[in-house]
Design brief:
Helix content: 40-55%
Number of domains: 2
Radius of gyration: 18 Å
CATH architecture of the largest domain: 3-Layer(aba) Sandwich
Number of strands: 6
Shape: globular
CATH superfamily of the largest domain: HAD superfamily/HAD-like
Distance between the termini: 14 Å
Order of helices and strands: EHHHHHHEHEHHEHEEH
Strand content: 5-15%
Low-confidence stretches: none
Strand order of the largest sheet: 3-2-1-4-5-6
């Protein structure tokens, strides 16, 4: 296992790692719940349903731009719970990404990490959605790869290969210089481990404690992970303490 200080580049998943997408999703689904007086649907139930429906939709329509994909997920979510809904509500949910908040530790940790590493994003949203979110992150990324750019959604291996190939060709960064930083085992760590990309798990859900899978699909077997941290501050602390490459 390579030490943190031996990498030149950190590639980040964004939503779930840098942006608090579970709070964003839960907030954005409130109009539907209010419209149907659905006080029996709790946050954990809604996020679990979202995780299942989103992963199915992403696999079925890999080239569908994220706002439209989210709108479709909202539509199917309403059908599953037998809620009354209309297209305007679906569209509003699809357009909610710019309103999803950053985690409290994100901007400070990224600024600290930027002093030592090149920072890259590999995200499952569209360009416009990430552009809006990036204003909350406080740093400039060396490269950004979205599902819209690649034409597929993680956990598709194509997304990772696109990033790796582009960083080598356009930025002179080799695969073994990249540490992929992410929360989702399903979207990020399983495919990263399969292709031999070093990883750092930001385990915000504390899956060994009382946490749940939340808005992320579960995995049957935990993949190999190189580094594990409870949040981005812990990663930044470890990087500060690491010996230089």
């Amino acid at each position: 296992m390579k030490e943190i200080g031996s990498f030149s580049t950190l590639s980040f998943d964004c939503y779930g790692t840098l942006i608090d997408w579970e709070t964003g999703i839960w907030d954005a689904i409130q109009p539907l719940l209010l419209h149907n007086r659905a006080d029996h649907v709790h946050r954990a139930d809604a996020l679990e349903a979202f995780a299942e429906l989103e992963s199915v939709q992403q696999e079925a329509t890999p080239d569908l731009v994220y706002p439209r994909l989210l709108a479709k997920v909202h539509e199917v979510f309403a059908q599953r719970f037998e809620f009354q809904c209309h297209p305007d509500m679906d569209a509003a949910f699809g357009a909610s990404v710019p309103h999803w908040p950053a985690f409290a530790d994100t901007a400070d940790a990224l600024r600290r990490l930027e002093k030592r590493f090149g920072l890259v994003v590999l995200s499952n949203v569209d360009r416009a959605g990430f552009a809006a979110s990036s204003r909350k992150l406080g740093v400039t990324f060396q490269a950004i790869y979205t599902a819209e750019d690649v034409g597929s959604y993680k956990p598709a291996r194509r997304n990772f290969h696109t990033m790796i190939d582009d960083l080598r060709a356009d930025h002179g960064v080799e695969k073994d210089e990249i540490l992929h930083v992410a929360q989702s085992l399903y979207h990020d760590h399983v495919p990263a481990a399969e292709i031999g990309l070093a990883t750092a798990w930001i385990d915000r859900q504390d899956l060994d404690g009382t946490g749940s899978w939340g808005a992320t699909a579960s995995v049957e077997e935990r993949p190999t992970i190189d580094h594990r941290f409870k949040d981005l501050t812990a990663l930044a602390d470890a990087a500060s303490d690491a010996a230089p490459a």
